[in-house]
Structures are given as C-alpha cells and as structure tokens.
Write a structure and sequence with these properties.
This is Short chain dehydrogenase. About 45% of the residues lie in helices and about 15% in strands. With about 270 residues, the protein is an alpha/beta fold. The protein has a single domain, classed as NAD(P)-binding Rossmann-like Domain (Rossmann fold, 3-Layer(aba) Sandwich). The termini are far apart. The longest helix has 22 residues. It contains ten helices and eight strands. The chain has an eight-stranded mixed sheet with strand order 3-2-1-4-5-6-7-8, with helices on both faces. It binds NADP nicotinamide-adenine-dinucleotide phosphate. NADP nicotinamide-adenine-dinucleotide phosphate (NAP) binds next to α1 and α8.
C-alpha cells in the first residue's frame, strides 16, 4: 500500500538515497532540504530517474526554528495524513557554531528542529492507520550539558554532536510513551557511512551509504517493527543488519529526560 512519507534532509546522503528507494516503491515522498534549488533538483532527478511523479519538495533551514515552524504550518495544511516521518536531517561540521539566536547549530538541526517539527504535525501523523516516526540517532551519544543545550557554553564538534544525538534519543523514547499509537524508533544507521557528513568529519568511511538506507527502509516500512516503539536500533551491531540494543543509560533516566524536556520547552 502506498504511504505518504516525509524524509527530512533528503537532498544528500542516506536521506536522498532513501527518498529515491521510497519513490521506486511507489510511495508519495516529500523531499526536504535547506536550499530550494537543491530540493527542486533532487525532486526532478527522482522523477526523471524513476519515471514516477508523486514526489514533492519542502524547504526550511533547520538552523532557524521559526523557519521550521513555518514549514510545519505548511505541512499541517497541505498534507492532512502523514504515514511516516523520517527525522534524518543532521549536521556535524559547521562553519558558524551558533545560529542567530545564539544556540549551537548541531543542537538546533539535530534535536530542536525535529522536536519542533514533529510536535507541530503530530495530529496529521495520527491520521495514519499505522503511523511511524524514525529518528536518526548515532553511536555517538554523550550526556547533555544544559549549558551547551542553551548555547551558554561551547564544546567540541564531536561532543556537541553526541549530546544532540542523545537528546534526540531521550526525546524519542519519551514521545513513544506519550503517543502509544505511533511507532517511534531511534536508529544508529551505522557508523561512518559513505556520505558527505562522515567524509567531512573524519575524511574516511567504513561502510557504503546503502547500509544506512536499507535499515531506514526496513524500520519505516516493515511490519517486523510495528511493536518496537520506544527502542533504539543499533546498525553497528550484527552483520549485515543490526538489532535493537540499549541506548546510552541517560535515555532511560526519567529525571534526566524530564529536565531535558523542561529546558527544551524554554528554548522554543
Ligand atoms: N553518515 C554516517 O556515518 C552517520 C552515522 C550515524 C548517524 N548519521 C545520521 O544520519 C543522518 C543523515 O546523515 P548523512 O550521513 O546522510 O549526512 P549528509 O550526507 O551530510 O546529509 C545530511 C542532510 O541533512 C541536510 N541538512 C544539513 N543541515 C541542514 C539544515 N540546516 N537544514 C535543513 N537540512 C539540513 C543536508 O542538506 P544539504 O544537502 O543542503 O547539505 C542533507 O540533506 C544525520 O542525522 C546523521 O547524524 C549518519
């Protein structure tokens, strides 16, 4: 059955390849990116290559939470039923560390933007018969410093990225409890996949990008995972495919999750 699927950050990397595969399978796909020209080019490329036309573009720079809210308002109006949201947009290296509001760009793009977008369009996601939200976490997960989260202190790229991914995972588990009718899964798609992010950050890769794409397609579409809400899938474990594993201990610490969400609400 054809599903309506939004993939954020699908102008490059595993998001783009995932959007391609979803189109090949005949789903209605929304490609999202920060740059309108790039979004239009990817939408055209998918349409031409797959000879399938139900592909649409969405634009918002996720460093800007006002732009995220505007995009959410547009989605609320234009896409009444969303079956699957893949929160994939992410950043590791960035020239500017802070956004115009003084928040660390990794925290904004990797955690606050998907938090704002998802919460704003929850009612549309709930219209689906079997809704799913897939949140792109990472093997890199580090305790979230409130000072880093609110932009008061700056940490290394490695540490801030890992903090943003643990924040996303903590919220993901909380969302699964809050919304028992939505399957919410956090996933490490595999470390050092062959994408712009890994190559820019480390100058090397360990695995083809397709390893991450395959698991995103599985988690999003397969019936195997419909009862795995509130879990973390680690694609570094196992071969060729990973399995559900424990995330960082903080992701199970109710007091820390409560504190994270309280601070998050003050920021948005
Ligand atoms: N690659 C890995 O080894 C690996 C490992 C673990 C987790 N992950 C996670 O997997 C996800 C995808 O990563 P990837 O490796 O495919 O990265 P990528 O090739 O760098 O692609 C990232 C995507 O996010 C978009 N993006 C970046 N900043 C944005 C912003 N400010 N606003 C809107 N969109 C923005 C990019 O847009 P542009 O096309 O405009 O750049 C691109 O479409 C990320 O969340 C990443 O943290 C990756």
């Amino acid at each position: 059955m054809s599903k309506t699927i939004i993939v954020t950050g699908s102008t490059d990397g595993i998001g783009k390849l995932t959007a391609f595969s979803l189109a090949e399978k005949g789903h209605t796909v929304y490609v999202h990116g920060r740059n309108e020209t790039k979004v239009d080019a990817v939408v055209s490329e998918i349409k031409t290559t797959t000879n399938y036309q139900d592909i649409h573009g969405l634009v918002a720079d996720f460093t800007d939470l006002e732009a995220v809210s505007k995009l959410a308002a547009q989605i609320k109006k234009d896409i009444p039923k969303i079956d699957i949201l893949i929160n994939n947009a992410g950043i590791f290296k960035t020239k500017e560390v802070h956004n115009k509001n003084g928040l660390d760009i990794r925290m904004v793009v990797n955690y606050l933007a998907p938090y704002v977008l998802t919460n704003a369009i929850l009612e549309n996601i709930k219209q689906s018969e079997a809704p799913r939200i897939i949140n792109l976490s990472s093997a890199a997960q580090a305790p979230v410093s409130e000072a880093v989260l609110i932009g008061k202190e700056q940490d290394s790229a490695n540490s801030t990225y890992a903090q943003s991914k643990l924040a996303l995972t903590m919220w993901s588990f909380n969302l699964a409890k809050q919304e028992p009718n939505i399957t919410v899964i956090a996933v490490n798609p595999g470390s050092l996949l062959n994408t712009k992010m890994a190559n820019e950050a480390y100058g090397l890769h360990w695995s083809p990008a397709e390893k991450g794409v395959d698991i995103l397609l599985h988690l999003a579409l397969s019936d195997d995972y419909k009862n795995d809400s509130g879990k973390y899938f680690d694609n570094d474990k196992g071969d060729p495919k990973g399995y559900f594993s424990p995330a960082h201990p903080d992701a199970y610490d109710e007091a820390k999750i409560k504190a994270l969400l309280a601070t998050t609400k003050t920021l948005i």
